[in-house]
Amino acid sequence: MHKAEELNLIERAERGDEAAMRQIYDRHVRTVTAICRRYVVRDDALRDTLQDVFLAVFQHLPQFRWQGEGSLRAWICRLAVNKSLDTLRQHTRLEAMDALDDVDVADEPMPPMDGVPMEELMGMIQHLPDGQRTVFNLFVFENLTHREIAQRLGIREASSASQYHHARCTLARMVGEYIRIHDL
Amino acid sequence: MKEDWIEQLRNRAADYGEAPPPGVWDDVRDAVNGTASSKPSHKRSRLVWWTIPTAAAACLLLFFTLRHSAPSESALHPSKGEEKALARGEAPENPATTSYAASSAPLAAARPISPASSTGRKREEHAVFVPEKTEILPAKTDILPSEPETPPTAEADVRYADLSEASLEQPQDSTSWQPTERKPPVRSYDLVAQLPDNGSALPDVAPGASSHLSFSVHATRSMGGGGMNAGGPLAYGHSGMAAPVSPASSDYPEPDYWQHEEIEEPFSFGIAVSWQFAKRWRAELGLDYTTLYESYSSSWPRGNSKEMEKCMQFVSVPARAHYLLWDRKLLQAYVSAGITAEQCVRNYRDISRTYENGHVGLRREHGVSRPFQFSANMGLGVQFNFNRHFGLYVQSEFGYYVPNGSSDRNYYTEHRKVVKSEVGFRVNLNRMYKNQKP
Fold this sequence. Notes:
The structure holds two protein chains of two kinds. Chain A has eight helices and no strands. Chain A is an all-alpha fold. Chain A has helices at 3-14, 18-39, 43-59, 71-91, 118-126, 130-140, 146-153, 157-181. In chain A, 68% of the residues lie in helices and 0% in strands. Chain A is globular. Chain B has ten helices and twelve strands. By secondary structure, chain B is α+β, with helices and mostly antiparallel strands. In chain B, β10 and β11 form a beta hairpin. In chain B, strands 1, 2, 3, 4, 5, 6, 7, 8, 9, 10, 11 and 12 form a twelve-stranded mixed beta sheet that branches. Classes of the chains: A mainly alpha, B alpha+beta. The interface between A and B is large, with 41 and 34 residues.
């Protein structure tokens, strides 16, 4: 999308033009849904979260500063992560997460995922426990360090690392199982 | 150094998208337009369930706190020593100075009464309280002499008779009593506790944004109308007065005025819920329970006295709209307006009459005020927010009680215009402030 076109869209949406809002919604809703789905598993909670995200987008659009192509998308994605974490906090005490026992978790290498459809990978991530899934998403997709994750979730850094380790191993097992079943 | 598969997964996820659940855009559009609730009910319900007990507990605490701050009724009853004296069949040593007659002592002194005041005015004009049922109060009857030394006379026989009718007939030659002019209230007392208003730690809802649900507890104090007054012909406690009849043989005929009245202004408590449906607007609906308490007394020489305690209880449904005038994170100001519908659910009077020989007649009359009592209210409030969920507010309100044709005179019928100061505690179910960044 050209700069002028996107800026015009933003300006119209700020003025309350419903058509412009709808365009922004249509352009980003699939990405936002995918992000929120990684954190929020339940359908009803997902719907609430999506509503919250786009509500916040249109509510705070005047505060958005366009900084180049993709900046609107990045801003909306950041909102999506924040709102997803808010939703998650309402249902889960993330701060209660603690370091997990590593005794039973073998440090498995991650099998190649090229042949595994993204939908399947997302489904596997959604099957992770809340704590592991949240840390995994923040570490892998948001590119945060364990220190940053710990600060964000109000947990210890060691807990973040431990949760991630468990999530990674669990995901590796699920991916390996998928490859074995589908003979990839 | 993150592993390669992470980079690979991240790249694949960057282009990945999922179809949203159906109806999300409709929800967003409705919320933007301010026509829908911000959160589906299942999301609120968890908050509601812990908030309701909290609000109820706060309401009860407030109720008992305020109740204990109300004037004690003990001042209107005989002391233990006096009860014992009465039980022995003795009149109080100095009725004019006993606690329950103290307030009327100056009035008990012999004063000429104008014939018009005692005879010219028909009791029917005021006897509008229609007793549904009269009962003897067993709890107090132990202060009656078990066996009067003198055989029952006409005086004793009427103790439990239908006194309303008996009291209609006043001596025509009364000359020793005169109504006193009613003094302005020297003290007002009003306490109303209500639950509800959304008060929201007043989260900001942008036009069309999500709505917010809140509960609150509040107390109101009226500015005037209650207090201790000298009675008189205009004292509304006079209406429906059906005190135990005075002995016909008395040299000092019973005055048909209440010489002393004590009016407690309405005390109410309840719950309410409010909903912020637009950035500055919220609607509130409540359910309140209100009590009106009044006491009247008269005394005259030779230990004669009579008292009446009147209690009315109302259930009311207040509906209000609030408009946010000014908003800072910690402090907010708003105006409100609305109407309240009240229905009397209980109405009774305890009447006691003390005679020269120490006999005490007690009875209770029940009545019902059937018409709804409507009132219109408008006010100005300020709220201090402790945090996202809890706020304390003060509100000054002007209320007008619409005449409802009720035949039973009470606080509402006699004080059509009331100014109230309200203190409240609000529980907001929404977590977001206006200036909270996403």
